[in-house]
């Protein structure tokens, strides 16, 4: 308890130093916006620091409270950063659609020269985000999704075989781990043209390195104080993770050029949009549109990192929960199996993305 109090006091002090204009925890009172009491906020911070409650569950509680009290929006503190939380559907639509041009910034730490992994679309701001995001659009066309789907089907066979092995030997398995191996094999193959063999070997360098860092003290620190990382030119992740993605882009570019290889994947698309120009931190802050400027090496590294990290855990979590629910609901599982059988019978034993679209309705 003593440690909690000391840590919370230190965090509050640092926050006041780092964010003087927004004087932590009184910002929303100043603005006259409904918020939560500073006392609950200290408890909330302690819970997050000591991993008693996930950050987004706390945000969900806040949203539900505001909605229940009939408020159209509320003032929340994302860790210590004042954050506006709309609850009214029309207001949300305005922010996401009609007024979107005013809301292009993300809050993460950015360093164009020293921290390539920070340069991903989850952190970028303004015109720089728009320019890079518009280049990525071509990686998510329906033709590209179809190729990704076929890759998912291919590794689905390995997934199936592994599950069968567990069933036959009556062994229990940690489904999240196996799902992560499956999504890693799929994303790394489709995105970068690399066979990671995570399912077959039960491991992967990508999973090993990322699982070490995803919930580390360092990543917590960067969420609390992105400004400190920018100020001291610190990297979001350790050199081993950063170098893995730098080597991935540099190595692939060199290998494909030397061997004249064209493979229509995510990294190929980035390489096609690349430029020899290295972006500096001051250029990054320029307001002018970056739509016509090619991607720097560091920007490509940032997008590859985001592509993998955005895809592997999210999809693995969705697969794990689906499988657990199906295991617990035999009737629904039987119904789904019958539906799949009918689709396979009608389409020569193959699944296509078009069937999936019909399925979701
Ligand atoms: C069930 C699985 C998934 C969920 C729930 C999910 C969820 C999300 C959400 C909520 C965002 C928006 C984040 C933000 O703007 O702050 C996002 C963005 C993104 N996701 Fe996913 N995602 C999933 C699967 C994937 C996969 C498989 C990939 C790629 C292999 C992927 C790549 C991306 C990328 C690149 C972005 C950033 C796009 C941008 O900046 O506009 N995601 N995802």
Automatic annotation (TrEMBL):
Its main location: endoplasmic reticulum. It is found in: Endoplasmic reticulum membrane; Microsome membrane. GO terms for cellular component: endoplasmic reticulum membrane. Keywords: Endoplasmic reticulum, Heme, Iron, Membrane, Metal-binding, Microsome, Monooxygenase, Oxidoreductase. One of its GO terms (molecular function) is oxidoreductase activity, acting on paired donors, with incorporation or reduction of molecular oxygen. It comes from Pyrocoelia pectoralis. It is a peripheral membrane protein. Its cofactor is heme. This is Cytochrome P450. PANTHER family: CYTOCHROME P450, CYTOCHROME P450 6A16, ISOFORM B-RELATED. Belongs to the cytochrome P450 family.
